[in-house]
Amino acid sequence: MSITELACKRVQELTPYQSARRIGGNGRIYLNANESPECLHFDLDSSTYNRYPECQPEEILNAYAEYAGVKAEQVMVSRGSDEAIGLLVRTFCEPGKDQILICPPTYGMYSIAAETNGVDFIKVAPTEDFQPDVPAIFKALEENSIKVLFFCSPNNPTGTVIKEEILRQILEKTQGKALVVVDEAYIEFSPEMTMVKLLNEYKHLVVTRTLSKAFGLAGLRCGFTLADPEIIGLLLKVIDPYPICVPVAQVATSALSKENIQNMQNRVTELNSIRDEFTKECKKLSYVTEVFDTNANYVLLRFTDSEKVFNEAKKAGYILRDFNDKPRLKNCIRITVGSASEMAELLNFLKGLN
Ligand SMILES: *Cc1c(COP(=O)(O)O)cnc(C)c1O
């Protein structure tokens, strides 16, 4: 038997997550991973690097709880929110028996976390306006053994925010049966849309967050799960013993200081205004057929010929994210909002394609 044949069948058959880094591409301006255009500076203290860290460093839990308006016992910190997605699947789904539910087009990690853990995923297409299709979800819940439902708000890549009354209908139906996860990786770009306020009302609601996007710390790998302490306790049975390195804890704690939260909010205000200006100009381009309404630091555009735009942009050094092959997103490209000068340059280039 070859080494590959020794591997689990599901791993042999798996297509791993196509992250921006994995897809690669060499350019000058990277607008393909929804990262912050700005890199922040932090000082480190190496005096305890010989010791293992706390599994859940208290100062981070306290700082994030205060920022998010929850209690520290409602917070788990993990190696990015991607780790939290995997933990939710492993903790609540019996492989080969239970399923997760997703509404594509959405973030790709939910189905991959399911696949790597031997858990099936049920796809329920969203409605015309990219909201969860409630009757179709209820039907899927009746016909399967769904344990975790994943919703992304603002949704990557469409930018759509889930409506509260729709989430409430789903929460009412799933009480005592399944967890409802709302992935709020981009919520800082539209903070008033958070569903955190429903946590105390619904014990089976989970909100995931990250420092990777608005906080500008994708390289840090630090994410958060907000949920009832009972859910947090179960996830902490499954998490690795030392997920948060000491330097990560130091940077995360500093990033969550009052001053740095204010700095983050100032950057968000600036990026949102760059985004609004950029989308306004894109609407004027003759070969742009649709500009999705967005609540995040990216915008999804539909073109008459996205392949041409994507390839020409790449040749010119702009690395964008192609969604042409995803359901309902024919000819769509997602563009991360970069700095003012990056977006002005890209706009200039797009105008030249006309
Ligand atoms: C980027 C992203 C994440 C990943 O966050 P990490 O904390 O960097 O793992 C999670 N969810 C969505 C929707 C994202 O776009």
Walkthrough of the structure:
There is one protein chain. The chain has 354 residues and is of the alpha/beta class. The chain contains 13 helices and 13 strands. It has helices spanning 3-6, 9-12, 20-23, 58-68, 80-92, 109-116, 134-143, 164-174, 229-238, 246-255, 258-282, 306-315, 340-353; strands at 29-30, 75-78, 99-102, 120-123, 146-152, 179-183, 205-210, 223-226, 288-291, 298-303, 318-319, 321-322, 332-336. Strand 5, helix 8 (164-174) and strand 6 form a beta-alpha-beta unit. Bound molecules: pyridoxal-5'-phosphate (PLP). The site of pyridoxal-5'-phosphate has 13 residues, from helix 5.
Major β-sheet profile: 7 strands, mixed
Order of helices and strands: HHHEHEHEHEHEHEEEHHHEEHEEEH
Low-pLDDT segments: none
Strand order of the largest sheet: 2-8-7-6-5-3-4
Ligands and ions found = pyridoxal-5'-phosphate
Distance between the termini: 56 Å
Radius of gyration over all CA atoms, rounded: 21 Å
Helix content: 25-40%
Instruction: Tell me how many strands there are.
Output: 13
Q: What's the tally of helices?
A: 13
Class computed from helices, strands and strand pairing: alpha/beta
Give the overall silhouette. Answer: globular
- Overall pLDDT metric: 96
Q: Strand percentage, roughly? A: 15-25%
What's the SSE blueprint?
Elements: H1 3-6, H2 9-12, H3 20-23, E1 29-30, H4 58-68, E2 75-78, H5 80-92, E3 99-102, H6 109-116, E4 120-123, H7 134-143, E5 146-152, H8 164-174, E6 179-183, E7 205-210, E8 223-226, H9 229-238, H10 246-255, H11 258-282, E9 288-291, E10 298-303, H12 306-315, E11 318-319, E12 321-322, E13 332-336, H13 340-353
Parallel strand pairs: 1-11, 3-4, 3-5, 5-6, 6-7
Antiparallel strand pairs: 2-8, 7-8, 9-10, 10-13, 12-13
Helix pairs in contact: 5-6, 7-8, 11-13
The protein binds pyridoxal-5'-phosphate.
